[in-house]
Amino acid sequence: MSAVSAMIGTPFHPRTAAANQVGEWSEWAGYLAAPSYARSVDIEYAAIREAAAIIDVSPLFKYRVAGPDARALVGRIVTRDVRRLAPGRVIYTPWCDEAGKVIDDGTVAALEDGSLRWTAADPQLRWLTLNSRGLDATIEETTEALGALALQGPRSAAVLEAAAGEPVADLGYYRRRAFRIGGVEVDVSRTGYTGDLGYEIWVEAGAALAVWDALAEAGRDHALRPAGLRALDLVRLEAGLILLGVDYTSSRHAAIPEHAFSPFEIGLGRLVEFGGGNFVGRRALAAERSGGGPGQRLAGIELDWPGIEARSLAVGLAPVMPPTVSRVPVPVFAPDGPQIGRITSGGWSPLRKAFLALATLDGPWARPGGRVEVEWTVEATRSRVEARVVGLPFLDLPRKRARPAMA
Protein backbone atom coordinates (compact mmCIF):
# COMPACT_ATOMS: atom_id res chain seq x y z
CA MET A 1 0.00 0.00 0.00
CA SER A 2 1.41 3.41 -0.97
CA ALA A 3 1.70 6.23 1.53
CA VAL A 4 -0.95 8.24 -0.34
CA SER A 5 -3.44 5.38 -0.45
CA ALA A 6 -3.11 4.98 3.32
CA MET A 7 -4.29 8.55 3.91
CA ILE A 8 -7.87 9.64 4.31
CA GLY A 9 -9.73 12.59 2.90
CA THR A 10 -10.91 15.53 4.98
CA PRO A 11 -14.65 16.31 5.20
CA PHE A 12 -14.12 18.60 2.19
CA HIS A 13 -12.28 16.02 0.08
CA PRO A 14 -15.02 15.52 -2.55
CA ARG A 15 -14.71 19.23 -3.38
CA THR A 16 -10.95 19.58 -3.05
CA ALA A 17 -10.43 16.48 -5.22
CA ALA A 18 -12.68 17.91 -7.94
CA ALA A 19 -10.78 21.22 -7.81
CA ASN A 20 -7.32 19.62 -7.93
CA GLN A 21 -6.24 20.19 -11.53
CA VAL A 22 -2.84 18.51 -11.12
CA GLY A 23 -3.90 15.48 -9.09
CA GLU A 24 -1.02 15.87 -6.64
CA TRP A 25 -1.47 15.12 -2.94
CA SER A 26 0.70 15.29 0.12
CA GLU A 27 0.26 14.09 3.69
CA TRP A 28 -0.84 16.31 6.56
CA ALA A 29 -1.44 14.52 9.87
CA GLY A 30 -2.65 11.43 8.02
CA TYR A 31 -4.98 13.35 5.71
CA LEU A 32 -4.75 14.01 1.99
CA ALA A 33 -3.80 17.65 1.43
CA ALA A 34 -3.38 19.47 -1.86
CA PRO A 35 0.05 21.11 -2.29
CA SER A 36 -1.57 23.18 -5.05
CA TYR A 37 -4.69 23.03 -7.17
CA ALA A 38 -3.39 24.93 -10.19
CA ARG A 39 -0.24 24.32 -12.20
CA SER A 40 1.31 27.51 -10.88
CA VAL A 41 1.48 28.40 -7.21
CA ASP A 42 1.52 32.07 -8.24
CA ILE A 43 -2.19 31.89 -9.07
CA GLU A 44 -3.08 30.73 -5.58
CA TYR A 45 -0.68 33.16 -3.94
CA ALA A 46 -2.32 36.00 -5.86
CA ALA A 47 -5.77 34.86 -4.73
CA ILE A 48 -4.71 35.16 -1.08
CA ARG A 49 -3.03 38.53 -1.47
CA GLU A 50 -5.31 40.17 -4.07
CA ALA A 51 -8.76 38.55 -3.86
CA ALA A 52 -9.89 35.62 -1.71
CA ALA A 53 -8.82 32.02 -1.23
CA ILE A 54 -10.28 29.03 0.55
CA ILE A 55 -7.86 26.63 2.24
CA ASP A 56 -8.76 23.29 3.80
CA VAL A 57 -7.12 23.23 7.24
CA SER A 58 -9.17 20.35 8.64
CA PRO A 59 -6.08 18.24 9.51
CA LEU A 60 -5.31 20.54 12.43
CA PHE A 61 -5.67 18.64 15.69
CA LYS A 62 -8.73 19.92 17.53
CA TYR A 63 -9.92 19.45 21.12
CA ARG A 64 -12.90 20.54 23.20
CA VAL A 65 -12.13 21.25 26.85
CA ALA A 66 -15.25 21.53 29.03
CA GLY A 67 -16.36 21.37 32.65
CA PRO A 68 -16.07 23.62 35.72
CA ASP A 69 -12.26 23.53 35.61
CA ALA A 70 -11.83 23.84 31.84
CA ARG A 71 -10.26 27.28 32.13
CA ALA A 72 -8.04 26.15 35.00
CA LEU A 73 -6.74 23.29 32.86
CA VAL A 74 -5.91 25.59 29.96
CA GLY A 75 -4.27 28.06 32.33
CA ARG A 76 -2.16 25.26 33.77
CA ILE A 77 -0.68 24.52 30.34
CA VAL A 78 -0.46 27.58 28.07
CA THR A 79 1.79 30.59 28.61
CA ARG A 80 -1.03 33.13 28.17
CA ASP A 81 -3.26 34.59 30.88
CA VAL A 82 -6.58 32.86 30.19
CA ARG A 83 -8.46 34.79 32.86
CA ARG A 84 -9.16 37.42 30.19
CA LEU A 85 -10.40 34.82 27.70
CA ALA A 86 -14.10 35.72 27.68
CA PRO A 87 -16.58 33.98 25.33
CA GLY A 88 -16.10 35.30 21.82
CA ARG A 89 -12.34 35.73 22.15
CA VAL A 90 -9.47 33.69 20.69
CA ILE A 91 -5.82 33.61 21.72
CA TYR A 92 -2.71 32.32 20.00
CA THR A 93 -0.30 30.66 22.41
CA PRO A 94 2.59 28.24 22.83
CA TRP A 95 2.79 25.64 25.57
CA CYS A 96 5.92 24.21 27.13
CA ASP A 97 7.37 21.33 29.09
CA GLU A 98 8.83 21.75 32.58
CA ALA A 99 12.15 22.91 31.12
CA GLY A 100 10.39 25.83 29.41
CA LYS A 101 10.82 24.33 25.93
CA VAL A 102 7.96 24.62 23.45
CA ILE A 103 5.88 21.53 22.78
CA ASP A 104 3.56 23.14 20.22
CA ASP A 105 1.68 26.32 19.42
CA GLY A 106 -1.93 26.92 18.43
CA THR A 107 -5.15 28.73 19.25
CA VAL A 108 -7.65 28.54 22.08
CA ALA A 109 -11.18 29.89 21.49
CA ALA A 110 -13.74 30.54 24.22
CA LEU A 111 -17.25 29.34 23.31
CA GLU A 112 -20.54 30.57 24.74
CA ASP A 113 -21.23 27.35 26.65
CA GLY A 114 -18.05 27.79 28.69
CA SER A 115 -16.05 25.21 26.77
CA LEU A 116 -12.83 25.91 24.90
CA ARG A 117 -11.78 24.86 21.39
CA TRP A 118 -8.05 24.11 21.24
CA THR A 119 -6.12 23.66 17.99
CA ALA A 120 -2.61 22.25 17.57
CA ALA A 121 -0.24 21.06 14.88
CA ASP A 122 0.68 17.84 16.71
CA PRO A 123 -1.42 15.42 18.80
CA GLN A 124 -1.98 16.80 22.32
CA LEU A 125 -4.59 14.55 23.92
CA ARG A 126 -2.14 12.78 26.22
CA TRP A 127 -0.53 16.05 27.37
CA LEU A 128 -3.90 17.62 28.11
CA THR A 129 -5.03 14.53 29.97
CA LEU A 130 -1.86 14.28 32.06
CA ASN A 131 -2.23 17.88 33.16
CA SER A 132 -5.92 17.54 34.01
CA ARG A 133 -5.24 15.51 37.14
CA GLY A 134 -7.24 16.83 40.07
CA LEU A 135 -9.38 19.07 37.88
CA ASP A 136 -13.05 18.70 36.98
CA ALA A 137 -12.58 18.99 33.23
CA THR A 138 -13.30 16.79 30.22
CA ILE A 139 -11.16 16.63 27.09
CA GLU A 140 -12.69 15.49 23.82
CA GLU A 141 -10.70 15.14 20.62
CA THR A 142 -12.78 16.62 17.78
CA THR A 143 -10.22 16.38 14.97
CA GLU A 144 -12.38 14.10 12.84
CA ALA A 145 -15.69 15.59 13.94
CA LEU A 146 -14.87 19.15 12.85
CA GLY A 147 -14.00 20.39 9.40
CA ALA A 148 -12.09 23.66 9.12
CA LEU A 149 -11.67 26.13 6.28
CA ALA A 150 -9.46 29.20 6.14
CA LEU A 151 -11.10 31.96 4.09
CA GLN A 152 -8.31 34.48 3.50
CA GLY A 153 -7.55 37.59 1.46
CA PRO A 154 -8.73 41.19 1.03
CA ARG A 155 -12.12 40.06 -0.35
CA SER A 156 -12.65 37.37 2.30
CA ALA A 157 -15.01 39.54 4.38
CA ALA A 158 -17.16 40.22 1.33
CA VAL A 159 -17.34 36.50 0.54
CA LEU A 160 -18.23 35.62 4.11
CA GLU A 161 -20.91 38.32 4.27
CA ALA A 162 -22.47 37.14 1.01
CA ALA A 163 -22.45 33.52 2.17
CA ALA A 164 -23.80 34.26 5.66
CA GLY A 165 -26.34 36.87 4.57
CA GLU A 166 -25.48 39.16 7.49
CA PRO A 167 -22.86 41.81 8.31
CA VAL A 168 -19.42 40.56 9.31
CA ALA A 169 -17.44 43.81 9.52
CA ASP A 170 -18.01 43.98 13.29
CA LEU A 171 -16.16 40.70 13.89
CA GLY A 172 -12.85 41.92 15.29
CA TYR A 173 -9.37 40.48 15.04
CA TYR A 174 -9.02 37.34 17.19
CA ARG A 175 -12.76 37.29 17.88
CA ARG A 176 -15.28 34.59 17.01
CA ARG A 177 -19.03 34.06 16.78
CA ALA A 178 -21.65 31.81 15.23
CA PHE A 179 -23.05 32.27 11.72
CA ARG A 180 -25.19 30.24 9.34
CA ILE A 181 -23.71 29.40 5.95
CA GLY A 182 -25.59 27.26 3.45
CA GLY A 183 -28.24 26.60 6.07
CA VAL A 184 -25.59 25.18 8.42
CA GLU A 185 -24.56 26.58 11.78
CA VAL A 186 -20.83 27.30 11.83
CA ASP A 187 -18.38 29.01 14.12
CA VAL A 188 -16.23 31.71 12.54
CA SER A 189 -13.05 33.17 14.01
CA ARG A 190 -11.16 36.10 12.56
CA THR A 191 -7.89 34.23 12.55
CA GLY A 192 -5.55 32.69 10.00
CA TYR A 193 -2.02 31.76 9.01
CA THR A 194 -1.53 34.17 6.10
CA GLY A 195 -0.87 37.57 7.68
CA ASP A 196 -3.85 38.91 5.73
CA LEU A 197 -7.48 39.72 6.36
CA GLY A 198 -9.09 36.35 6.92
CA TYR A 199 -11.33 33.99 8.80
CA GLU A 200 -11.39 30.36 9.88
CA ILE A 201 -14.69 28.50 9.65
CA TRP A 202 -15.40 25.53 11.92
CA VAL A 203 -18.19 23.16 10.91
CA GLU A 204 -19.47 19.71 11.82
CA ALA A 205 -17.93 17.23 9.39
CA GLY A 206 -21.27 15.95 8.09
CA ALA A 207 -22.30 19.44 6.95
CA ALA A 208 -18.94 20.45 5.49
CA LEU A 209 -19.84 20.17 1.81
CA ALA A 210 -22.86 22.45 2.14
CA VAL A 211 -20.63 25.14 3.63
CA TRP A 212 -18.00 24.74 0.90
CA ASP A 213 -20.68 25.02 -1.80
CA ALA A 214 -22.21 28.12 -0.25
CA LEU A 215 -18.82 29.83 -0.01
CA ALA A 216 -17.96 28.86 -3.58
CA GLU A 217 -21.23 30.35 -4.83
CA ALA A 218 -20.78 33.53 -2.78
CA GLY A 219 -17.19 33.84 -4.00
CA ARG A 220 -17.99 33.87 -7.71
CA ASP A 221 -18.10 37.67 -7.74
CA HIS A 222 -14.89 37.97 -5.72
CA ALA A 223 -12.45 35.71 -7.65
CA LEU A 224 -12.48 33.13 -4.85
CA ARG A 225 -10.39 30.04 -5.56
CA PRO A 226 -8.96 27.14 -3.53
CA ALA A 227 -5.35 27.45 -2.44
CA GLY A 228 -2.99 24.68 -1.36
CA LEU A 229 -0.17 24.26 1.09
CA ARG A 230 2.55 25.74 -1.12
CA ALA A 231 0.81 29.09 -1.39
CA LEU A 232 0.01 28.95 2.33
CA ASP A 233 3.69 28.30 3.09
CA LEU A 234 4.72 31.36 1.09
CA VAL A 235 2.29 33.80 2.68
CA ARG A 236 3.06 32.57 6.21
CA LEU A 237 6.76 33.18 5.49
CA GLU A 238 6.00 36.76 4.42
CA ALA A 239 4.01 37.16 7.64
CA GLY A 240 6.95 35.87 9.70
CA LEU A 241 4.90 32.98 11.09
CA ILE A 242 6.77 29.93 12.35
CA LEU A 243 6.05 26.31 11.43
CA LEU A 244 6.45 23.38 13.79
CA GLY A 245 9.00 20.87 12.53
CA VAL A 246 10.60 23.46 10.26
CA ASP A 247 11.39 26.66 12.16
CA TYR A 248 11.49 24.90 15.51
CA THR A 249 11.37 21.37 16.85
CA SER A 250 8.86 20.27 19.45
CA SER A 251 10.65 19.44 22.69
CA ARG A 252 9.02 16.01 22.43
CA HIS A 253 11.07 15.23 19.34
CA ALA A 254 14.31 17.01 20.15
CA ALA A 255 17.19 14.57 19.77
CA ILE A 256 19.52 16.71 21.89
CA PRO A 257 18.87 19.66 24.25
CA GLU A 258 20.05 22.12 21.58
CA HIS A 259 17.16 21.03 19.35
CA ALA A 260 14.54 22.26 21.84
CA PHE A 261 13.46 25.90 21.90
CA SER A 262 11.92 28.24 24.44
CA PRO A 263 9.26 30.78 23.39
CA PHE A 264 11.91 33.52 23.68
CA GLU A 265 14.05 31.72 21.09
CA ILE A 266 11.34 31.44 18.41
CA GLY A 267 9.82 34.90 18.56
CA LEU A 268 7.00 34.05 20.97
CA GLY A 269 8.39 35.68 24.10
CA ARG A 270 5.64 38.32 23.96
CA LEU A 271 3.16 35.51 24.61
CA VAL A 272 4.71 34.50 27.92
CA GLU A 273 2.52 36.19 30.53
CA PHE A 274 4.03 35.57 33.94
CA GLY A 275 1.09 37.16 35.71
CA GLY A 276 -1.33 34.60 34.34
CA GLY A 277 -0.67 31.79 36.78
CA ASN A 278 1.63 28.86 37.45
CA PHE A 279 1.70 27.26 34.01
CA VAL A 280 3.99 24.38 33.05
CA GLY A 281 7.51 25.70 32.40
CA ARG A 282 6.95 29.04 34.13
CA ARG A 283 9.85 28.64 36.55
CA ALA A 284 12.32 27.77 33.80
CA LEU A 285 11.15 30.66 31.62
CA ALA A 286 11.42 33.12 34.51
CA ALA A 287 14.98 31.94 35.10
CA GLU A 288 15.78 32.33 31.40
CA ARG A 289 14.44 35.88 31.40
CA SER A 290 16.24 36.91 34.57
CA GLY A 291 19.44 35.40 33.20
CA GLY A 292 19.49 37.79 30.26
CA GLY A 293 17.43 35.84 27.76
CA PRO A 294 18.29 33.05 25.35
CA GLY A 295 21.55 32.60 23.51
CA GLN A 296 19.79 32.25 20.15
CA ARG A 297 16.78 34.01 18.66
CA LEU A 298 14.48 33.98 15.66
CA ALA A 299 15.36 36.65 13.10
CA GLY A 300 14.30 37.81 9.67
CA ILE A 301 16.87 37.93 6.87
CA GLU A 302 16.65 39.65 3.49
CA LEU A 303 19.27 38.61 0.96
CA ASP A 304 20.96 41.20 -1.29
CA TRP A 305 19.83 40.74 -4.88
CA PRO A 306 23.16 41.81 -6.50
CA GLY A 307 24.90 38.95 -4.72
CA ILE A 308 22.30 36.40 -5.82
CA GLU A 309 22.52 37.65 -9.40
CA ALA A 310 26.32 37.61 -9.43
CA ARG A 311 26.51 33.99 -8.26
CA SER A 312 24.32 32.87 -11.16
CA LEU A 313 26.00 35.02 -13.80
CA ALA A 314 29.38 33.64 -12.71
CA VAL A 315 28.38 30.23 -14.08
CA GLY A 316 26.60 31.59 -17.13
CA LEU A 317 23.04 31.33 -15.82
CA ALA A 318 20.29 33.84 -15.30
CA PRO A 319 19.11 33.95 -11.68
CA VAL A 320 15.90 32.01 -11.16
CA MET A 321 13.90 32.14 -7.95
CA PRO A 322 11.93 29.01 -7.00
CA PRO A 323 8.18 29.65 -6.58
CA THR A 324 7.99 27.71 -3.31
CA VAL A 325 9.51 27.98 0.15
CA SER A 326 12.65 25.98 0.88
CA ARG A 327 12.67 24.21 4.23
CA VAL A 328 16.26 22.98 3.92
CA PRO A 329 18.51 24.42 6.67
CA VAL A 330 21.12 26.82 5.25
CA PRO A 331 24.13 28.17 7.20
CA VAL A 332 24.34 31.86 8.11
CA PHE A 333 27.76 33.40 8.78
CA ALA A 334 29.23 36.53 10.27
CA PRO A 335 30.80 38.66 7.49
CA ASP A 336 33.97 36.82 6.48
CA GLY A 337 33.58 34.89 9.71
CA PRO A 338 32.25 31.74 11.37
CA GLN A 339 28.75 30.32 11.27
CA ILE A 340 26.34 32.16 13.58
CA GLY A 341 23.09 30.38 12.80
CA ARG A 342 20.94 28.84 10.13
CA ILE A 343 18.02 29.66 7.88
CA THR A 344 15.00 27.42 8.51
CA SER A 345 12.51 28.74 5.90
CA GLY A 346 13.38 30.83 2.86
CA GLY A 347 11.79 31.91 -0.38
CA TRP A 348 11.09 34.65 -2.90
CA SER A 349 8.36 37.09 -1.89
CA PRO A 350 6.35 38.22 -4.92
CA LEU A 351 5.02 41.22 -2.99
CA ARG A 352 8.28 42.33 -1.40
CA LYS A 353 10.33 41.42 -4.50
CA ALA A 354 13.05 39.97 -2.30
CA PHE A 355 14.39 36.66 -1.03
CA LEU A 356 13.24 36.43 2.59
CA ALA A 357 14.15 33.91 5.25
CA LEU A 358 13.45 33.01 8.84
CA ALA A 359 16.60 32.11 10.73
CA THR A 360 17.82 31.10 14.14
CA LEU A 361 20.84 33.27 14.98
CA ASP A 362 23.20 33.69 17.90
CA GLY A 363 21.64 36.35 20.12
CA PRO A 364 23.90 39.35 19.33
CA TRP A 365 23.41 38.81 15.59
CA ALA A 366 19.60 38.66 15.71
CA ARG A 367 19.10 42.41 16.12
CA PRO A 368 17.63 44.13 13.02
CA GLY A 369 20.07 46.20 11.00
CA GLY A 370 23.08 43.90 11.17
CA ARG A 371 24.88 42.45 8.17
CA VAL A 372 25.41 38.71 7.71
CA GLU A 373 26.26 36.26 4.94
CA VAL A 374 24.17 33.33 3.75
CA GLU A 375 25.39 30.20 2.03
CA TRP A 376 24.16 30.19 -1.59
CA THR A 377 24.57 27.23 -3.95
CA VAL A 378 24.49 27.45 -7.75
CA GLU A 379 25.38 24.46 -9.93
CA ALA A 380 26.64 22.54 -6.89
CA THR A 381 29.06 25.37 -6.06
CA ARG A 382 28.72 26.87 -2.61
CA SER A 383 29.46 30.51 -1.96
CA ARG A 384 28.17 33.31 0.25
CA VAL A 385 25.67 36.09 -0.42
CA GLU A 386 25.47 39.22 1.70
CA ALA A 387 22.24 39.82 3.60
CA ARG A 388 20.81 42.03 6.30
CA VAL A 389 18.87 41.18 9.42
CA VAL A 390 15.40 42.76 9.37
CA GLY A 391 12.50 42.98 11.78
CA LEU A 392 9.56 40.59 11.66
CA PRO A 393 7.06 40.31 10.15
CA PHE A 394 8.42 40.99 6.68
CA LEU A 395 4.92 42.00 5.63
CA ASP A 396 2.48 43.67 8.04
CA LEU A 397 -0.77 44.44 6.22
CA PRO A 398 -3.05 46.91 8.08
CA ARG A 399 -6.14 45.14 6.72
CA LYS A 400 -5.28 42.07 8.79
CA ARG A 401 -6.51 43.84 11.94
CA ALA A 402 -8.60 46.74 10.61
CA ARG A 403 -12.36 46.80 10.16
CA PRO A 404 -12.83 45.44 6.63
CA ALA A 405 -14.17 47.70 3.90
CA MET A 406 -17.30 46.11 2.46
CA ALA A 407 -17.59 48.09 -0.78
Describe the structure.
The chain is an alpha+beta fold and 407 residues long. Helices cover 19% and strands 30% of the residues. It has 3 domains: 132 residues, Gyrase A, domain 2, CATH 3.30.1360.120; 81 residues, Alpha-Beta Plaits, CATH 3.30.70; 101 residues, Elongation Factor Tu (Ef-tu), domain 3, CATH 2.40.30.110. The longest helix has 11 residues. The chain is globular.
**Helical amount:** 10-25%
Strand content: 25-35%
Integer count of domains: 3
Structural class: alpha+beta
- Stretches where pLDDT falls below 50 for ≥5 residues? none
Q: Which series of helices and strands comes N to C?
A: HEEHEEHEEEHEEHEEEHEHHEHEEEEE
Oligomeric state of the chains?
Answer: single chain
| Helix count from the secondary structure assignment | 9
Which CATH first-tier class of the largest domain would you pick?
Alpha Beta
Computed CA radius of gyration, to the nearest angstrom: 22 Å
Summarize the structure.
By secondary structure, the protein is of the alpha+beta class. The protein has nine helices and 19 strands.
What keywords describe this structure?
six-stranded mixed sheet, 407 residues, 9 helices, Gyrase A, domain 2, single chain, Elongation Factor Tu (Ef-tu), domain 3, Alpha-Beta Plaits, six-stranded antiparallel beta barrel, alpha+beta, 19% helix
